[in-house]
Structures are given as structure tokens and as C-alpha cells.
Amino acid sequence: MASSNHLKLLGGWFSPFVMRVKIALNIKSLVYENIEETLNPKSQLLLQLNPMHKKIPVLLHGDKTICESRIIVEYVDEVWNSGPSFLHSDAYDRAIARFWAAYIDDKLFVAMIHALKEEDEEARKAYLEEIEDSLVTMEDELQKCCREGKGYFGGEEIGLVDITFGSLLCWVSVIETVNGRKMIVEEKHPCLVKWAERFEFDPNVKGLIPETEKLIEFALQMKWKGAASAK
Ligand SMILES: N[C@@H](CCC(=O)N[C@@H](CS)C(=O)NCC(=O)O)C(=O)O
């Protein structure tokens, strides 16, 4: 019988969504058991714990199951106060952070996954442009924080938006590499460049970021055409 506080994370080293949960658990200094899911084929445990979506991450907290990365991140913040909060105390600020977190998943991530899977060069170019548009939008949003002297979307410390967006950076790097095109650049994104460095070197993030080459190998194994045919 699982103790009520025992934490297990069903995850995968390659998954930006899993990385979000790991960052949240690190910020709260929580110890957890990592169960690596390959998705190929999906394990019985995954199918049993997340029968609706059949996706990682899944967090097990004692006998409670929590699915969906942003929901898990918020759950971790609400249940534990053993580290800084990554949700604003003000309801309006929280709503704005949730808006941007949803924007990142619905716009930026969707364009990224299409760019990775799309074989047709013209279609892929359109997705790359969508990614670039979203990055400019995020730069504009971050500049507001920078003007107030804050280094993160969340303020002085990593918040929900930083976790949601930052976890995608390693896959942005994959897209940059396979397409031979830098997408986060000083001239267009001065704040994002500094933010990305700050994020990647944060003690709660460092060590969680997979190498670009390993992710490219993973994308090729998955037969993602946008990673294979891109130059
Ligand atoms: N909206 C989900 C997305 C999770 C997701 O797409 N996970 C991928 C791995 S990175 C997965 O499990 N994919 C399996 C599938 O699509 O069948 C979340 O935020 O947790």
C-alpha cells in the first residue's frame, strides 16, 4: 500500500511536459520515484493511470493520480510549501500566467510539433514562421517583466510561464539544428536570450535538459519526417 505522501512520476527523459513536473518537484525539494516510460509500446501502467489521454507525465501522490503537466505543476504548488511558489498570490496575475501558459502549449508547441513531423518543406517553413511569431510575442511579454527589473515571467523567481515555456527550449534547439536556422537570437529577442540562459542554469533545472543530439536521435527513431528531411 503506497504511503499517502509517496511520489512517483511516470515520465520520459525526452518529454518537455515531464520536465515541467520535475522542475516543480525540484523547486519544492520533493523526493520522488522516477518511472521511465518509453511509449513504445505504452506500458500497462500508463494505460491504467491515464486512460483518457494515454500520455506522460502522470504523477502518483500516494494513491492519487494526477495527469496533464500544467495541472500537475499547479497541484504541486498548491499541496507543498517546502519551496517558493510558482503561482502568483494575486488572482489576476495567476489568470494572466495561465493565459500565457495555455498560449505556449496551444500556439508555440503545436507549431513546434508540426515542424518536427512535417515532411513537406513549404508546409514546414510555414510552421517555422509560426514558431518565430510566437517567440516574438513571448519576447514582447518578457520585455514588460524586464522593464520592471524582473528576470523571469514569474517575477524574481521561476513561475508557471517560465516552467511551461522553458521546458520547450531543448526542443527549440532541435528545430534550430535540423533546420540550420537559429530562432532565438539576440537582435530579435534580447530578453529571451538572457532568460533562456538564466533558466537553463537555474539549480532546479540544470541536469534535466537532454542534449540536442540525443533528442534528434529520438526524433529520428520516432520517424518524425521534419527532423529527418530538414537540412
Ligand atoms: N497536454 C499534455 C501533453 C503530454 C504529451 O503530449 N506527452 C507525450 C510525450 S512528450 C506523450 O505522452 N505522447 C504519447 C501520445 O501522444 O500518444 C500535458 O501537458 O501533459
UniProtKB/TrEMBL annotation:
UniProt GO molecular function: glutathione transferase activity
GO cellular component: cytoplasm
Superkingdom, taxonomy of origin: Eukaryota
Keyword Transferase annotated: yes
Boundaries of every GST N-terminal domain copy: 5-84
Gene3D superfamilies reported in the protein's UniProt record: 1.20.1050.10, Glutaredoxin
CDD domains listed in its UniProt record: GST_C_Tau, GST_N_Tau
Alphabetically ordered keywords of this record: Detoxification, Transferase
Reaction equations catalysed: RX + glutathione = an S-substituted glutathione + a halide anion + H(+)
Keyword Transferase in record: yes
Sequence ranges assigned to domain GST C-terminal in this UniProt record: 90-226
Pfam families from the UniProt entry: GST_C, GST_N
EC number annotated for this UniProt entry: 2.5.1.18
Entry's family note: Belongs to the GST superfamily. Tau family.
Protein name: glutathione transferase
